[in-house]
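Batch manifest, entry 17 of 40.
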Amino acid sequence: MIEDLVALARVFGYLSLMTLGGGIAIYPELSKLVVDGHGWLTLPQLDYLYGVGQAAPGPNLMIVSIGALTAGLPGALSVLVAFVGPPAVLALVVGRVWSKLRGRAWFVALQRGLVPVSIGLLLAGCLTFAKGALTGWTTVLIGVVVFLVVLRSNINPAVMVLAGAAAGILAFGLN
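Output type: structure tokens
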């Protein structure tokens, strides 16, 4: 049990410091470590948890359930502290330094360079998530339609989540 808690803390502490660009940016590494590396979940289980977390309001902390499924409540707490703690401390330190360095040429260049890195990580996460979630022509069609509607309109993404749920129920039934 202690080994699991240490492994969970190590994995999610590491992942917490890689989340440039949001949670989806770490999805490829999350999948590699949780599914392939430790075998804590299968890819469909991870896709399901991540998808539910994206659909729920607030930040996606469904990864805490990986700790719960692996080592119960202590595992969930281990993942929560490991995933939230390091970036919170880092944000506090960087926030204080940030205001002092604002406007310097090298600092502005650094900020501009991080934007494409974040976008690349976001796209890599989306593609990794899509590999496991888009398993047939129906799911691909639903994904493409949602993508195009969100891209070309001002519809609230929450409406698209509900529409996607309805499309899934219609396409796959309530089995």
